[in-house]
């Protein structure tokens, strides 16, 4: 795991403590439709039909979808047994997007 991935995991933990995550499949899909989240995390080892549903929704609503982490990593990052969630805070979302861009460059 590189430095950017570690930083993203740390940010997710902080966002969870701050109450800035929308947890679970249904609530996250609702938040995407209501444009309340800017970044959505879906596990790389998640189901194909669910993955397609999230890819379609996030693309339609111009929300960034992150599938770089597996279920266990996402659950550990937020300290809860959830692997699908959205970030509802603009500050956290902006920083996570910056880290994702930097990761792509490296």
Automatic annotation (TrEMBL):
Pfam families assigned to the protein according to its UniProt record, in alphabetical order: Ribosomal_L7Ae
SUPFAM superfamilies: L30e-like
Coiled coil: none
Location of the Ribosomal protein eL8/eL30/eS12/Gadd45 domain: 7-95
GO cellular component terms, semicolon-separated: ribosome
Matching InterPro entries: Ribosomal_eL30-like_sf, Ribosomal_eL8/eL30/eS12/Gad45
UniProt keyword terms in alphabetical order: Ribonucleoprotein, Ribosomal protein
Name this polypeptide is given: LSU ribosomal protein L7AE
Source organism of this protein record: Convivina intestini
């Amino acid at each position: 795991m590189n430095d950017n991935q570690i930083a993203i995991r740390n940010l997710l933990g902080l966002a969870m403590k701050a109450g800035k995550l929308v947890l679970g499949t249904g609530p996250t899909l609702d938040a995407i439709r209501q444009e309340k989240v800017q970044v959505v995390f879906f596990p790389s080892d998640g189901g194909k039909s669910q993955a397609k549903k999230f890819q379609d929704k996030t693309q339609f609503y111009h929300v960034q979808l992150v599938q770089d982490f597996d279920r266990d990593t996402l659950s550990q990052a937020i300290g809860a047994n959830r692997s699908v969630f959205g970030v509802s805070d603009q500050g956290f979302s902006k920083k996570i997007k910056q880290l994702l861009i930097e990761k792509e460059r490296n």
